[in-house]
Amino acid sequence: MSEIEWKITEQNLSQELVSKDNRWHISRTQKGKSEPEFFLSQWDLLLTPHGSGADYRACFETFITDCDEFMKKVAAIQSEAREHLQLLLQTEEKLLHEN
User: Fold this and answer.
1) Are 28 and 36 in contact (CB under 8 A)?
2) Tens-digit pLDDT profile for residues 3-47
3) Number of neighbouring beta carbons within 10 Å of residue 52
4) How far is CA 91 from each of CA 20, 28, 39, 44, rounded to the nearest angstrom?
């Protein structure tokens, strides 16, 4: 019987963090000993503005209206992200002062 020789590859780690309401997703990946990489997405923003209707005019009119709604949604989500970042920074500062 021949001996099996194993190659030891670098470890690849992958983790998905999801908010309780399933709107916020962070993918964390790390290859070998390299620094981890993060990718943040907000699922309410996955569907971009679009238009529909019985003719070209209706498509453009509904697209423009949808753009307005999308910009409101983006602004609200951006505000939510800023608030979350502020909490993270406050927690970091608090932990630094405790040590």
Assistant:
1) yes
2) 888 888 888 999 999 999 999 999 999 998 899 999 999 999 988
3) 9
4) 20, 21, 21, 27
Location of structure tokens 């502020």: 86
Taking the CA atoms of 89, 95, 98 and 99 in sequence, report the sign of the dihedral they define: negative
* Short-list 81, 6, 38, CA closest to 89: 81
The amino acid that residue 79 corresponds to is S
Contacts of 17 (CB under 8 A, 6+ apart): 25, 26, 27, 28
Q: Alpha-carbon distance 25 to 73, whole Å?
A: 17
> Which of 11, 14, 10, 19 lies closest to 37, judged by CA?
14
3-state secondary structure of 32: coil
CB-CB contact of 48 with 73 (8 Å): no
For residue 26, which phi and psi values (nearest 5 degrees)? -125, 125
pTM (2 d.p.)? 0.73
